[in-house]
């Protein structure tokens, strides 16, 4: 999911803004539900004093100048919650001593 906008993506990739705009438009056509969800979550955040409530119920403050990041908040907050539960499950199974490092959405053992 892109989040930084056309100008940022162009700067990061070296592609032209025109090329990025075409790619973003194609992405939005291929995955219209992501664009709709983003718009809905941004509206809800504005109505909720710039707080996004995750699928697991955590309340996450959203930067008023970066409301486009709400899709990342939605995805990454759930990934964090799933990883946290997995770590608790690993500990309960007596396997924590084999874990070396949590990395984004996985455990290195």
SSE class: mainly alpha
Query: Which stretches of 5+ consecutive residues score pLDDT under 50?
Result: none
Q: What is the total domain count?
A: 1
Query: How can the largest sheet be summarized?
Result: 2 strands, antiparallel
Mean pLDDT: 90
Major β-sheet strand ordering? 1-2
Fraction in helix: 55-70%
Strands, total number: 4
Task: Encode the helix/strand succession as letters.
Answer: HHHEEHEE
Overall geometric form: globular
Q: Classify the beta-strand content into a percent band.
A: 5-15%
What's the total helix number? 4
**Integer-rounded radius of gyration:** 18 Å
Query: What oligomeric state best describes the polypeptide chains here?
Result: single chain
Structure description:
With 109 residues, this protein is mainly alpha-helical. It has one domain (31-108). 56% of the residues lie in helices and 11% in strands. It has four helices and four strands. The chain has helices at residues 6-13, 17-30, 32-47, 70-92; strands at residues 51-53, 59-61, 101-103, 106-108. A two-stranded antiparallel ribbon has the order 1-2. It has a two-stranded antiparallel ribbon with strand order 3-4. Strand 3 (101-103) and strand 4 (106-108) form a beta hairpin. The protein is globular and about 55 Å long. 7% of the residues are buried.
SSE diagram, text form:
Blueprint: H1 6-13, H2 17-30, H3 32-47, E1 51-53, E2 59-61, H4 70-92, E3 101-103, E4 106-108
Antiparallel strand pairs: 1-2, 3-4
